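Hey, I'm writing a tutorial for new members on how sequence and structure tokens pair up, and I'd like a real worked example in the thread rather than a made-up one. If someone can provide the structure for the chain below, I'll link this post from the tutorial.
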Amino acid sequence: MRQTILSLILAGAAFAEVHSLTLKQAVDTALKENPDIVLARLEEQKARAAIDIARDPFVPKVYAGSGAAKVWGYPSSIEGAAPSIVQTRTDMALFNRPKSYELARVRELARGAAFGTQSKSDEVAYQVASQYVDVQQLARSAASLQLEIRSLEQASAAVQLRIQEGRELAIESKRVAVDLARARQRTEALQEDLDYARAALAVALGYPAGDRVETAEEEARTLDVPESEAAARALALENNKDLRKLQSQLQAKGLEVKEYGAGRLPTIDLVAQYALFAKSQYQDFFNHVQRNNAEVGAAITVPLLTGTAGKALRAQALTDIEELRTQMNQMRSRIELETQRSYQEMQKAASAREVARLDLDYTREQVSVLLAQLEEGRATQQKVDEARLNEQEKWIAYYDAQRTLEKARLDILRATGTLTAALR
């Protein structure tokens, strides 16, 4: 059974594909292939198609037809028009304020749907960039742990040699063995996390779950963030797509109120008709029969009693407007607060990264000093090995601090609505 399961896993891995992408390539791929963005675009297409549906009453429509029937007595048709060989008619709205407001409302909703797509694109770009940074930093940490394992293996061999020479206690070999086992366990756990992160990034880019994405080397990219917290809050309020979508919905609701309020206004429709008569059907009743008959004009309809639905729907739309205004005020406050918090977190991450860098520089200098002392016979190999292990730990801590700072910058750019442009 174990062999069968292992064979299936290896067979699945054989069909998996590894994609090596830069951050820009990953973001570009996600904006094209990510399932959430695809669904958002489909919703936007439906919203645009609704515009053509709402515009339909103002587009002329032409109908033509013919038929045959046996007539007894005075010529007439079931539909009320005179019987004809061929009949053509057309109609369209010339003046219909409710339908005009409905068309304007649907156009505004389509604009709001576009903001929804942009918001989803920004969210996906942030997720992909954040996952990309995770993969990048996990890979660097894994490389540092591999170096640490090599150093521990060398230290273990040196300890065994000193024990054999009687210059070291036997218990030191156990200490090194524990450190080596701990480093290997950390490496295995980190490799599992790295594999999962690569798979999650592949899924976010629209690839199958069995695929993996690896980060490709590229020139260092500096993500420019606003110079001050106030500037960040101003940009966030100006560019937030969810807030602009709410504003669009508010305008659409205003048009809906006007639509219901215009229900008592008259409507004017263009009407036109042509009919070709057969003389044989009319010559027994009329002295003169004109075969070609046409008429064109306007049909005016004046609502007299419209019922209570229009008034109630208008009241509901006004209530919706108040709800939207409350949501907008609440969202503005939340945007300002979250942007302020994100900016402060970025500043703290920058400070932590600087401390980690200084600590790393100090540790590297310690290693250099100990190596020089080792050549002079004033330091032991054990101290050098311990210093090198400590250096690898400082590298891992620096990578973690770097990842935290980069993700904090990504968060600020997402909040200010400039993330997608910065990454592309």
